[in-house]
Write a structure and sequence with these properties.
Elements lengths: L9 E3 L4 E6 L2 E6 L4 E4 L5 E4 L34 H7 L21 H4 L28 H13 L4 H18 L15
Antiparallel strand pairs: 1-2, 2-3, 3-4, 4-5
Helix pairs in contact: 3-4
Amino acid sequence: VDGILKNLPISLQDGKINIYKSCRGATLEVDFGLRVNFDFRSRITVTIPGTYAGSVCGLCGNFDGELKDEMMLRDGTLTDDPVRFGQSWQVSSTPGCTHECRGRCPKCDVVAARRYESSEQCGKIHSLQGPFRDCLGTVDPTPYLDDCMYDSCLYKGHHTILCESLASYAAACQDTGAHIAPWRNQTFCRE
């Protein structure tokens, strides 16, 4: 805060903003009902009261319940390009940061990514007999599977990446109330 490292919990602006540890991450709460959870890895969840439905915009969408208009650019037009979508909401530039990779950039083609599609790896996400089988009709597994395979490929099958990808799909399923079977054990994604 103001350049000084603080320990959690912390309360700011006379209690209007509170930040504290929660489960395996941290939560920021603002007095008007905004809540941001971060797991200190890769998952951020933003929650706002229903009174804001349809009256917000940005990277988290407009909260109108319609998936078709979630990729709206800052100028109000729609896109299906996630890079263009993200760039349109960029607040400011940081010196030295660019949208493109420079130098030796990691690459992974579709064929290489398919190596991680087995039911012992990323394929757990869409397996009809897998731990997420009861969620498949509720949360589309395709983008989670694609991201898992691509990230696993970029990181050469590093186990942590696989576990984070599976955890991301599990969290999305749980957010909808869908049942998931146990998928962690002593030898797989133990956490």
